[in-house]
Design brief:
- The chain is an alpha/beta fold and about 210 residues long.
- Helix content is about 30%, strand content about 25%.
- The chain contains 5 helices and 9 strands, in the order E-E-E-H-E-H-E-H-E-E-E-H-E-H.
- It has helices at about 35-50, 70-85, 95-100, 140-150, 165-180; strands at about 1-5, 10-15, 20-30, 60-65, 90-95, 105-115, 115-125, 130-135, 155-160.
- It has a 5-stranded mixed β-sheet, with helices on both faces. The protein has a 4-stranded mixed β-sheet with strand order 8-7-6-9.
- The N and C termini lie far apart (about 65 Å).
């Protein structure tokens, strides 16, 4: 059984049976400010709804972004903690790839990156990511796409309020079965966090 978690946009958690590709249970909210509050209850609820004990989980799938620093790290931390506690593999994937899974291509996946910007990724007709993830202001998106993949300017655009963890888990199962690579084990933040480490204290003249 795979447990899938994503907090790159809203919060989504799911349990997926990798042998059948079936999503056994899923909970999600598009609230972008309550990741830390809902992640624990969602984990408990999906495991109960799926009738799966924590000891039956054989891998934990994590959406690695793109996403804002504060929200994204909640899901990644939860996934890493669960995987470490159960001594099972941690399986990272680019969050946008889950949205593109099952969608007819070519298309451009968009999520809210805050600060009046969107995160984007472009996928060809086969569902392969051919550009991105990147960051752009909505008014500049056409120009950014044109510079990265000119034909993508004309592709259908899909805006996701939350990343479906069920699709994330199904995608992970497919890649594990085929031997296709997962994503790098590095969060895709696209920008620096809002909170930074303070510099050296100022010297006070006496």
């Amino acid at each position: 059984m795979l447990l899938a978690i994503d907090t790159s946009a809203g919060t989504s958690v799911a349990v997926v049976d990798p042998t059948t590709g079936q999503v056994l249970a899923e909970r999600a909210t598009d609230d972008t400010r309550r990741h830390a509050e809902v992640i624990g209850p969602f984990l408990d609820e999906v495991l109960r709804a799926a009738g799966v004990s924590p000891s039956a989980v054989t891998g934990v799938v994590a959406g690695m972004g793109p996403g804002p620093f504060t929200g994204l790290r909640v899901g990644i931390a939860a996934a890493r903690t669960f995987a470490a506690a159960r001594a099972v593999p941690f399986l990272p994937l680019v969050s946008h790839d889950a949205v593109a899974t099952g969608e007819p291509g070519p298309l451009v996946v968009l999520t809210d990156a805050r600060r009046r910007e969107v995160a984007w990724s472009a996928y060809d007709a086969d569902g392969t990511r051919v550009a991105g993830p990147g960051l752009a202001k909505p008014a500049d998106l056409d120009d950014v796409l044109r510079a990265s993949r000119p034909e993508a300017v004309e592709w259908r655009r899909v805006t996701a309020a939350t990343i479906p963890a069920g699709r994330l888990g199904v995608l992970a199962a497919d890649r594990l079965a085929s031997g296709a690579p997962l994503a790098a084990d590095t969060p895709v933040y696209l920008r620096e966090p809002d909170v930074t480490m303070p510099g050296a204290p100022k010297r006070v003249a006496r």
